[in-house]
Amino acid sequence: MDEIRGGNTGDGTGGDGIRGTAAGTAPVPLSVLDLVTVGQGRTATQALRTGVEIAKLTESRGFHRYWVAEHHSMPGVASSSPAVILAHIAAHTDRIRLGSGGVMLPNHAPLVIAEQFGTLEAMAPGRVDLGLGRAPGTDGATAAALRRSDRLNEGADDFPQQLMELIRFLDDDFPDGHPYARIHAVPGPVQATADGGVQSAHRPPVWLLGSSGFSARLAGTLGLPFAFAHHFSAQNTIPALDLYRSSFRPSAVLDAPYALIGVSALAADDEREARRQVLTGALSMVRLRTGRPGLIPSPEEAAAYDFSPMEREFVDGWLANVVHGTADEVRTGLDDLAKRTGADELMITANAHGGEARLRSYELIADAYGLPRGA
Q1: Which of 23, 162, 295, 311 has its CA 20 to 30 A from that of 366?
Q2: What is residue 106's DSSP assignment?
Q3: Which pTM does this prediction carry?
């Protein structure tokens, strides 16, 4: 497999655009994964406005990055178009890094993704991340509709080749004689080589995302940063991180491993309210796993729902991996998670019915760690 060169992945401040710096008393940098959830009685417009509010709040409190994840055919998740959402967020923020957590590459032509994220980089120079996954981000039927093919396993198997093609487009360095050598992703490096052309040296750093060992090993082999979905695959977290670190080979992008983990966490003013809020996400997952995806239920509906014994077992297991409670309890849980996993960064997703609870959670977590105000 080709060596990853990666170009200049600078963030405009002398860093590499990947490593963050812990703020306040946080053990590692803190970041945000926003699923742009839509609750019952709420609209997608309201959910997207909440996303802007979350990005602005966490930017002001010193969080490192804000990512959105590609999902499809899920009424309660309004993040089917990460690039569109990130362009909107970019217009309302100044410093926080913006990225995908992630774009599901087999759903798209690599050239299209290179163009989309080249455009984002032009909008927000030096602060765009491109996180990539190999899962469809939806069910098989929807994936077939997205890809215009029912050969879904073939798409996942081709992921390493698609990845290398995408990176070639980002760096504009297909070798002479390649069928794509005369094709250029624009905005992109080709503009610097045109007569009178001036183009930023930055391009989005590529991250690999995963919930098992495949992307962990691939990210390590290529010397890329790695993001693991601890929030829905907690049992695989430490094995995947160990595999990433043991397979890591230094590259022009990174000289040492850098791994973040996504963690579901919600803080409230008291423990009872936190439990009340996270139960809405648990019920939503029950419905999703049983083929009944819908809007995020209200706390009242979740509290009144009659869980079957099997559903209750699932909910108990799900909530065991959601860090929730008072701000101090959440801080303790996040500290413990960072220590147990050795993660270089924690990316917090706060899933609840309403935007108010999610905003309050990020504010409380920032306060618990003494993060600066107006950063």
Answers
A1: 295
A2: G
A3: 0.92
